[in-house]
Amino acid sequence: MLDSSTVAIRPFNDSIYKNDSAFIYEEMPLQTETWWDRMWRKFWKFIDLLFSTKGGKQFFKWGLPAIALCVLGFFVYKFTGANKSGFFSKNGDTAFAYQIDEENIHELDFKTAIDKAIANANYRLAVRLLYLQTLKQLTDRGLIDWRINKTNAIYVQELAGNEQQTSFIQLTNYFDRVWYGETTITNEQFHDVQQSFIQFQQQIQS
């Protein structure tokens, strides 16, 4: 059945849309690519190309974890102070060849070890041995309680009220500068400080 109704044609009134902000669209200006954007685009394109190859996939699988472990090991080494603990050393020492722990500090032959360090002109090591020998003697006299996890500052505090505390502070400061600060000392300088250690040890033994 045919539709014979009359269709009323109304003109299109575009003013309604021109005045309504919801229907106003502005063309977005094209953004110019900077050299920084181009550099990163090329970089990531290179990375994508690199790891799409067989060699790149092998490197991603084995090389990156190895590098990550090396970086982690470096930071652990630096921030735990392992380079100052005596197991490693600069200046060509194999530094403290002894693992000083709570058992063998009382068994170590300090005289032999000190004499050997002096004969090798390893005065940093000799100072460390003299300091550890002093800690052992202080412990033997009951003046401090030596423990592997204690700091030198704690030993100084444990001597509070003792007439030897001031002398011990001076020896501790010297040891810290030589061992941790890696101060270079001459033969003459070492023998001066060695006498200070000997005098202090004689005083606490008397």
UniProtKB/TrEMBL annotation:
Domain of life: Bacteria
Pfam families recorded: DUF4129
Keywords carried by this UniProt record: Membrane, Transmembrane, Transmembrane helix
Protein's UniProt keywords contain Transmembrane: yes
Protein-glutamine gamma-glutamyltransferase-like C-terminal domain boundaries: 130-195
Membrane-crossing residue ranges in chain numbering: 59-77
Entry protein name: DUF4129 domain-containing protein
